[in-house]
User: Fold these one by one.
Assistant:
Number 1:
Amino acid sequence: HNHKFVICGNHEYHVSEQTYYVRDMFESFGVQLIHNKTVEVDGLKFYGEPRTPEFFDWGWMYKRGHQAATVWSQMPDDIDVLVCHGPPLGYLDMCPDWTDRDSMVHVGCKEQLDRLHQVKPKYVICGHIHESYGFTKYPYGYVINASICTARYKPHNPPIVIDTDLDLVYKS
């Protein structure tokens, strides 16, 4: 692939103090760390956001409500692809309820969804909620949960391919 992008997630909590070092390391391998950065490739604008709503004491987290709205207000108005760690509320965001393991709950971010309705990116690529791997349509294109790992952290999910020329999304 000519272009490779990466963002951190909740397991990369140690990177927050070393972002410049990690960015240099990735770039030495031809990979761009796109934290809060827009990159344009072949006419498509990609934006990266590593943070997700607070869950336990992991990395790259924000509080729901005002802090979440502040995070998502920083997303540019003219992007085509959002590469983020966590999903928007109601889209590929179901996981077990930690208070009742027999129930599933939506854990996506409402403030992210509100901002997506303003920006309308064609693709939203996330992966945080392993139980919700896959892709689905949303009003402006697709939400893609590309988590390679299962809920038990086993790397069994096949990669998801996005063909922007044909407007196709599929599991490889």
Number 2:
Amino acid sequence: MAQSDSKHCKICDGPGKFICSTWNEHGSVKEIQNYRCLNCGLVFVGNVLTDSQLNEAYGTLDWARYYSEIKEENAAKIKSSCISVKRLTRGNSSKRILDIGCGNGEFLQALRDEGFVSLAGHEIPGADLKHLEQMNIKLYRDMDWSSVPSSAFDVITMLDVAEHVRHPVELFEQCFRMLRVGGYLYFHTPVVTKLDRTMHYVAGLPLIGKLGRIWQRGRTSIFHLQNYTYKAFLLALSG
């Protein structure tokens, strides 16, 4: 299989080492090229993808089935995140909170149930979130966060969002723009593990290489564009 359109890290511009190609059945992009940065360790999709290609891929998903499959995992994550946000805000229910990549709005509804009254969500265009608007939750819809005002929020949350964006450094820069002085950024995202690194090696071996490619297909894809290391986090957050 041919290697990627891009071989440089999205965060530090370091050289990317080719891991493997994986098959993609969502949309018109049929092959995903996977790389690992030799500088910061970020594992990333090397394809140069457009907004229209990503929107096309997301349009193939059965969202009802997806949320049903992750229901228990998501409920535990939301419960834990609510506790963390209450700790960050010291129980002050008037603090302004923005949830980026709010999905179906479950986390925002949970925060409302916890008593928070100044809530907002950000999502790409097309999502049906009328139920949140009916709860007087402000919604921002665009592909680049430009509709969100600056210095407007005390806490920004992102639950499994940072792995989906094409430009992670820009995402974090935009978050800091939106936060008030002294505000908090709270996020969950997959990280590169020792098992990942083992499977990267396996993917290049004869006979058993398919096992490593199957593993990587579940880790990065047209939906999960990167997995972070601690070093990659520090570089992304520092801009």
